[in-house]
Amino acid sequence: MRLLLDLHPDSYPLEGFRRRQLLEWVFVQGAGSFDAMTNLPADLRAKLGEEYTLNPFREIETVRSTDGSVKYLFTLHDGRQMEAVYMPYLDRRTICVSTMVGCPAKCAFCATGAMGFGRNLTPGEIVGQVLAVAGGEGIAPRELRNLVFMGMGEPLLNYDHTMLAARILLHPQALGMSKRRVTLSTVGLPKGIRRLAAEDDLGIKLAISLHAPDEETRQRIIPTGHRNSIVEIMAAAREYQATTGRRVTFEYSMLRGVNDQLWQARELAGLLRGLVSHVNLIPMNPWDGSGFESSTEEEIQAFYDELEARGVDVSVRRSRGKDAGAACGQLALKRPDAVTGNIASA
Ligand code: SAH
Q1: How many other CB atoms sit within 10 Å of the CB of residue 331?
Q2: Percent of the chain with pLDDT over 90
Q3: Rounded to 5 degrees, what are φ and ψ at 68?
Q4: Which of 39, 69, 258, 265 has CB atoms 3.0–4.6 Å from 320's, for a disulfide?
Q5: Is 83 a catalytic residue?
Q6: Is pLDDT at 7 greater than 80 in this prediction?
Q7: Which of 61, 83, 251, 306 is an active site residue?
């Protein structure tokens, strides 16, 4: 049995208007079974059901945060698990999806990093997160218009599957997302960033997890960072901008006493000179045994002011889903003491 969602929409197993009907059922209606596709002839539905499965997940659990975000914990067909996060805002709905089970980047302040690497997700397991969250929230899949590849995993190390997933998200007959509302976040892999720049039909946004302007600090918090120097990462970011003309976002998780010193803000501003960029400061989200704590609000403000005074475009990311273990860096398959519900029975 193959997962239908692993296919590019243009190679779905039907032709012409039958294919359009099938795509409409999967991505517009969010149909959970071939049997539900009532305008397809019964023999076609039966044949599809013999060869393909629609659902990448064996089980789905949810943990709801008091701020409205929902952590989705998925059990895949091989029993492995990973997570996505749904974040409703007043004016939009955002989903944060995983590209791997676990992560090989091993960032010291990230709970997923501490799990180590499990395996890559397939394109359908990535896209399936969107359909499952829409189903769980009782909305149409296309109502989820903003997506970030910022869950578990390093998307540029699962490059081909992530690119196919992005093409399915953007495909007008699939999820029809706008490329401006899809962001890929990477730990900073120059080769992958250059490859992404060359995918010109794609045009999704790029965010780079820099987290420190100096090698010593960066390698302390991103142990795999020694493979790619900050100089190389910045060179790749500049090339990316030269090729695509797009603004680059830099993520910077604020770790108290580690990367939040004002001299580091000044060095960061220096690195960004001449680049059209945006810096996103992320208060560190705590987890048991991380050994790091977040900078205080005052410290974050001082860092912000130092950057702003140097002309850097900067904002602070509001944390979502902290009490559900769903905030940045907390995804590690834990079920905190919040209301947990099994979708199947909800
Ligand atoms: N592998 C990708 C996507 C990962 S997570 C990447 O490295 O960018 C998205 C962001 O959350 C990254 O910037 C990551 O460094 C950050 N992050 C990880 N753990 C965190 C934590 N405990 N608190 C705040 N941000 C964290």
Answers
A1: 30
A2: 87
A3: 100, -15
A4: 69
A5: yes
A6: yes
A7: 83
